[in-house]
Amino acid sequence: MQTLKQSSLLEKDTKTVQKLSLNYRRAKHTDHSPDLNQLAEQFNYESCCDSYWNPVEFSLLYGTPLWEQASESQKVLLNQLYWVAYYSQIISAEIATIFFNQTSATGLYSLEGFRLVCDTLDLETSQERCHIHGFRTVIDQVEEKLFGQRVFSYPMRSLFRETMIFADTNRFKNWWKGVQLSCFGLISAANPFLACQYLTVRGIRTLNGKLIQHKLSQFHTKYPDAKASPIPSQISYYHFLDESFHFNTSTILSHDVTRCLKPPTAFERQIANLGIRGCQKDHYHVSVAVNGIFWYDPALYFPIYTLLRSPSFGLSIEEAQQMLIACFSEETEGLHRSFKTHDEAISSYQVYLEPLDFISTDNKQMKLMASNSISSYLKTQKKALTLFFQQQTLQ
Fold first, then answer.
1. What is the pLDDT of residues 60-102, one digit of tens each?
2. What DSSP line would sit under 273-339, residue for residue?
3. pTM for this structure?
């Protein structure tokens, strides 16, 4: 007969339990949701429309001819639009996180002794909603003022879409991605190992964010008077602090808690590796427009074209087209900076995955991501720009 109380393998692993407890206590004690909610309520674009919000190099199309030819006021605008574009992508990631945190918690709560893990994921889910509210408040005001419409952002939407907002996709790919995400949600909610493996994927994605968001957060901490820094900069700072704990959670669950579960079956290994492969596909591309977000730049042509034709830049059709050619199809400082970030991401992902013996060699080495190159990027842009100009002529 079974005894009334049986200790789980997690409860027997006191070191891992201590890591989980410390991370949860600190995250709860330093929860910045109230700060972010207050900042969102206080935000008024007019009060900081003349200020940089990020370090200068984190500006839209930094290091390209557009940046080099821009006036000071236009550079400030490009800096702000980097914030808008970057956090539009973060919203997409956090919408997905809200759902998969819960499916993972469902899969793990079925085991004895896993309440602490689930409570941590619940706290983080609440924080994600707060982050999204803060980002959207700023983004909506900026785009309404500048364009009167959404350009880099989008209405709230289902998570069963391409995770990358500007992706190399079509209707079939969108549908197939939705099917895959739906199936993984169902399977992981009933499978503790795969519930943990969502956190492996989340860890990689959060690690990419940490590479950039740490630098964005420093704009606030290095501001002459931090309390007077622009509200978007403060939002970047508090979001980074929350996400640091989220990354700790991902690492503990994917590296330590996994060891407290039964060894994965061949099927579970395959699903876990498909998830990492999907990350590689999402992060394969390199964006010269938004360094640090691995968007497919041809999908960004129209938003950038809209910006160039707006009163803020006032370019003619011909001038806007020539600027697109100069920025996207020619080798620039901005392109080299973006590939450097891409290389840094590959190296950090390799280190993160190295201890996991169920990850395939191709995934550990990030072979798909590493196969991208500057020559391949430029070839893609030249072909895509020709098609884009033809489509614009027909409209």
1. 999 999 999 999 999 999 999 999 999 999 999 999 999 999 9
2. HHHHHHHHHHTS---SSSTTS---GGGGHHHHHHHHHSTTT---HHHHHHHHHHHHSS--HHHHHHH
3. 0.94
List phi, psi (to 5°) of 191: -135, 105
Q: What is the residue type of 41?
A: E
Q: For the chain, which domains are there?
A: 27-394 (1.10.620)
> Which residues are within 8 A (CB) of 265 and not within 5 positions of it... i.e. 6 or more apart?
none
Q: Is the dihedral of CA 293, 349, 57, 92 positive or negative?
A: positive
Q: How far apart are CA 23 and CA 340, in angstroms?
A: 32
Distance (Å, whole) CA 184 – CA 189: 8
Q: Compute the chain's Rg from CA coordinates.
A: 22
How does 287-314 read in b/e, with b if 16+ C-beta sit within 10 Å? bbbbbbbbbbbbbbbebbbebbebebbe
- Cα first-last separation, the chain: 75
Long-range pairs for 340-343 at CB < 8 Å and ≥24 separation? 341/211, 341/212, 341/286, 341/291, 341/292, 342/283, 342/286, 342/294, 342/369, 342/372
